[in-house]
Structure formats: C-alpha cells, structure tokens
Amino acid sequence: MLNIDKRFLAKEPDWTDSVYAAKMMLIYAASEIQKRILEDAPSFFSKHLAYFKDKYPSYFKNSLDVAEDCQNIIAAKDKIIERI
After folding, report:
1. Of 19, 29, 32, 37, whose CB has the highest number of CB atoms within 10 Å?
2. How far is CA 26 from the centre of its chain?
C-alpha cells in the first residue's frame, strides 16, 4: 500500500509527502479495526506514526493503543528476522 518494495526497506519515504501522509492515515484507521495490518509494517512505521500523531492529531485519535501495538508487532517481527 505504501508503494515500498521490500528490497528497498532501508529508504524511508518522505514525511512531507502528502500522499504518504494520507496513506499512513488510512493504514492507521484500518489498524484500529484489523490490527494484523501492522504485522507487515516497516521498521520505521512507528517513528513516522509518532510524527503524524503530533502533526495531525485529529486524524490519529486512539493513538496510544495502536502505537503500542505497532511497536510490539515490529519488535516481534525484528526478533524473528534476527533468528533467521
């Protein structure tokens, strides 16, 4: 959805890109209903989410629960990748 090829995950999208911000809002809203969406989130997702929560607070209302879930899922995914 974020148009990021998994081969190039090291490169973070531009935070000032309005299309990227809109996609983050969409993913965030969907993750409130379906938390499994965050399982494939890139490692920088939680950092960007924190930035967007500050910049657009009206679009990221239940931020604490989703941000914590996002960080937990990414941490678990990183541990699994380290084992491989």
Report:
1. 37
2. 10
Q: Is residue 15 part of a domain?
A: no
Residue 19: inside a domain: no
Contact assessment for residue 78 and residue 43, using Cβ atoms and an 8 Å cutoff = yes
**Residue 54: its H or E element:** helix 45-55
Range of the domain at 75: 35-84
For residue 2, being part of any structural domain is answered with no
pLDDT digits over 30-82, tens only? 887 887 887 778 778 888 888 888 888 887 776 555 566 666 666 666 666 66
**Single-letter amino acid, residue 10:** A
How does DSSP classify residue 11? S
Counted domains in the chain = 1
Distance CA 81, CA 75 (A): 10
9 belongs to a structural domain: no
Contact 37, 12 (CB under 8 A): no
